[in-house]
Amino acid sequence: MGSRPKRRIPGDCFSLRSRSLLEPATILPATCCPAPAAMCRTLAAFPTTCLERAKEFKTRLGIFLHKSELGCDTGSSGKFEWGSKHGKENRNFSEDVLGWRESFDLLLSSKNGVAAFHAFLKTEFSEENLEFWLACEEFKKIQSATKRASRAHRIFEEFICSEAPKEVNIDHETRELTRMNLQTVTATCFDTAQGKTRTLMEKDSYPRFLKSPAYRDLAAQASAASATPSSCSQAEPSHT
């Protein structure tokens, strides 16, 4: 009896090729990853683009923390630290970060929250939803009818029409309704599409963002900074 051919799993992530199904995979040397071996194998199974975007998410969180001038420790890439020179600002930022988990509205109303959420959506290849929502918010501020009409068509071509470069996930009826609205452009012509995209983010992506390791790490440090404000600034003299 001839030998049975080896099984091969299709896809971009990995292929067993000639390896037995019961043979443990040795994908990366132990020195390349401080995590347990099982985690190394799990990470190695992801496409390179997924890993790169995950790293970018954590890096971007560190970058916008640094830009907010809160004394982020620049010596540790991706590690979020509160500095000791801006106690009041640290506490305000801590409240901002913790507010993101209170409601989706608070997240969208925070400049840093939007930046963090956008970085997370990039790891899921769904950043077009937030970008469309932001484009609609800016669109509503346009006063000139000529500029509004021009911007409306650009938004439609970029996010709404079939095969758009950043096509958002909306139903056919909403797409056609938006197309009809462009015949007479008003500040509300994208409201239906924007609302459905927002609902999708709130029910789908937002919960996963809150559960992401990067946000949980950030929120934990924000909680610690809020609970111990004396660690962020010098104690005020007592007047008793």
From TrEMBL:
Recorded superkingdom: Eukaryota
Any one Pfam family match given in the protein's UniProt record, by short name: RGS
Membrane topology: Lipid-anchor
Region feature Disordered, mapped onto this chain: 221-240
GO terms under cellular component: cytoplasm; membrane
Predominant cellular place of this UniProt entry's protein: membrane
Record InterPro entries: RGS, RGS_sf, RGS_subdom1/3, RGS_subdomain_2
Purpose: Regulates G protein-coupled receptor signaling cascades. Inhibits signal transduction by increasing the GTPase activity of G protein alpha subunits, thereby driving them into their inactive GDP-bound form. Plays an important role in the phototransduction cascade by regulating the lifetime and effective concentration of activated transducin alpha. May regulate extra and intracellular mitogenic signals.
Name of the molecule in the record: Regulator of G-protein signaling 16
Start and end residues of each RGS domain: 103-219
Gene: RGS16
Keywords: GTPase activation, Lipoprotein, Membrane, Palmitate, Phosphoprotein, Signal transduction inhibitor
UniProt GO BP: G protein-coupled receptor signaling pathway; negative regulation of signal transduction
Subcellular location: Membrane
CDD domains, alphabetized: RGS_RGS16
GO molecular function: GTPase activator activity; GTPase activity
